[in-house]
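Example S7 (structure tokens).
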């Protein structure tokens, strides 16, 4: 389970994915949001 600052994404990232594409897409989106959040702060 990857630690994500966004609680809404954390629950999704912690669950085992049935679709690898959905997993990679959500993970990439979470990473972009995390990087963007770091730039703001």
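Recovered sequence:
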């Amino acid at each position: 389970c990857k630690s994500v600052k966004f609680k809404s994404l954390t629950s999704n990232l912690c669950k085992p994915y049935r679709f690898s594409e959905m997993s990679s897409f959500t993970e990439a989106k979470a990473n972009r949001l995390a990087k963007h959040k770091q730039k703001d702060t």
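Notes on this example. The chain has a mean pLDDT of 64.
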